[in-house]
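Table S5 (text form). Sequence records supplied for joint modeling of the three-component complex.
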Amino acid sequence: MKARRTVAAALSVLALTAVAACGKDGTPNSDTNKGGSAAPQLPTYQVNADAKLDGSPVWTKAKAAGKLRIGAKSDQPFLGFEDVQTGKRNGFDIEIAKMVAADLGFSPDQIQFTTINSSARETSIAGDQIDYYVGTYSINDNRKKQIDFAGPYYIAGQSLLVNKDNTAITDAKSTEGKAVCTVTGSTSVDNIKTYNAKVTTFDSYSLCVEKLLTKEVDAVTTDDAILKGYAAKNQGKLKVVGEPFSKERYGIGLKKGDAVLQKAINDALKKHEDNGDWKKAYDATLGLSGSAAPAVPELDPTTAS
Amino acid sequence: MGIPFEDGNFSLFVRGFLGTIELSALSALFALLLGFMLAAFRVSPVPVLRGFGTAWVTIFRNTPLTLMFFAVTFVLPRLDVHISSFTAAVAALSIYTGSFVCEVLRAGINTVPLGQAEAARSLGMGFGQTLGLVVLPQAARAVLAPMGSVFIALPRNSAIGGAFNVFELFSVQKTLTEKGYAIFAIFFWVALAYLVISFAVGAVFSALERRTAVAR
Amino acid sequence: MSTRTASVLYDVPGPRARRRYLVAGVIGTLGIAALLWWVVATLADQGQFDASLWDAFQYTAVQQRILDGVLATLETFALAAAGSLVLGSLLAVGRLSDHRPVRAVCTVVVQFFRAMPLVIMIFALYQAVFTAKPMWGLVIGLVLYNGAVQAEIIRSGINAVPRGQAEAAHALGLRKTQVMSLVLVPQAVRTMLPAIIGQLVVTLKDTSLGYIITYSELLYVGKLIASNSDGYPYIPVVLVITPIYIVMCLALGGLARWIESRGRRGATRRGAAAA
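The corresponding structure-token record, covering 796 residues in total, follows.
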């Protein structure tokens, strides 16, 4: 009894000291101010206040509620990342989400981001849990059965991330028998299995990268855009190897059958790609990971139904 | 509705089922060993060991199992301890369950009439003999029912391993969900598998109870 | 607590025994010290005590996130606790009903949900309905499972209430429902309070399953901090959130013991048992 009380007291003191340390206000993470003042600045998007999407049930409901619910990732550096020290989200996917939202008539403070894992994307869109999803979401026919896509707004390819000193893995073929980590519910799983790798799965790439850093797995596989972000975040420890062995077209997932919204999102993407916002957003996010902006993808006629 | 009998899912189910059984059985064994050791510590005449046992049990009984899985999976590699996901899962489950086994044993020891231990001591037995030959065998009877619920809970808890890269029934549920089958139909089949396991463990314990039952 | 039972197992030590215990004590101390030293040394070796790794915790935003995580955990726990107690009472009463179909249904429900792994239920609910509101998937799962467990606890409590109580209540002309709700359930809850609160501790611990379905309770927040801060402070995060959980659980357990001791103040038949 007495022992327990002492233990409890000691533990509470511990916890309190841990939590009650003096607070520092957030300074941005190291990657966002890497280039000092010369770093590329994020564009700002003009909110189109008179946007009117009659005939889009999703938009009408969001407008009435005064908030737009966007699904995203939270642990992919430069793509969809949540800076825990400032509590803000940043990255290329987040910028795409914001520019589209602006054209739909929603200001940044009307956006509510929700983190949704790869494996839960279709259900959350189909079940009206979110209005659209932007987060390294590959357009494919299987997913089109349940939802619609707008875009693509970026083209990536599956690649491999390994430790700097690893010379054994150079391309997809050399992963045979090696421990490769990827995420449940992503297209990467099936792709890598064809090469007879030993697949380890977690529900987010950051956990895979953690396993790679501690050498529990030999490689992490997914789209190069995601991997480049992690490589940049872990400068000097990790590298991306091999030619991309798949083509992943990132689209914006939205509710099936809402053609009006789909068209509006496609128009918004087109507009921002043409006026240079897309390139600016890329340079200020993914561009920081050291790869130049690829060509802007053509919108897919099949997503514009 | 007959998901296990379509598209070659049956082998998936069998693998998951065996995974759960293997994980649970190994963890049960280690939990039992650990529990006995901790219980002996906690009733021993050596204060240091008593304190250690108490602290250990207090910490691990009040830590969520998911957190322990998380710690074993992501903390150990950072300490340069490299073990497979399966070993990690067995470790997390054993440490967690072991603390509960210890508490059940301790409560069981408390049910043995004091006269028994006193009689043993008056025959000149030491602590080890008193505990091992007289008290524990009698405590076994009182311990069986609560021990049963600990070990019926173990396979249920092992499902968390599926979130940490161990292939078992929860992984089967996740895999099939991704393949796009009806979610509650999958749940039905996975639930059935767990019911079978629970029922089997329960049956083993009731058989044991019947065998050790004594007319009082 | 344990000293009394333990002291029955061995005599007051004589000189030789004292020496033996001393040796065992020294060896035990050394063993424990070695274990602790290994842990600390390895942590230090791997640079886990570097200030940079603990840096993340100095930011107000991070502390706020941890606090929000604690609050989310407690909120889920409060909802699940209330829900499971209500459901548990209903199921317990249902299992004691005079109507066979009601009994049968309640028995099936209780047995089914007691045997279900929580993860499996929560995951199904999350995938089917609550992908963007995972909290409700978690709460409903917790209520179903813990409700079934609490039902069994309450039922055994009702069965333990002396029969004269129910008979007296009936004799006063109370109806069945009134006998249950006014006489039996309150007494059952009182006698079973330690077990009920014990199960509530389990409920509190199980809220951490929210981690699996991306609900930002304490553990999930910890993971996010670990994976999104420079240097990946997985170990510091675990060292910070584990004590928080332990303290929360111990506080609940302490509440159970306090209530029990208050309940014991009356005329009880247990005081002499252990003497």
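Note: Chain C has one domain: 60-260.
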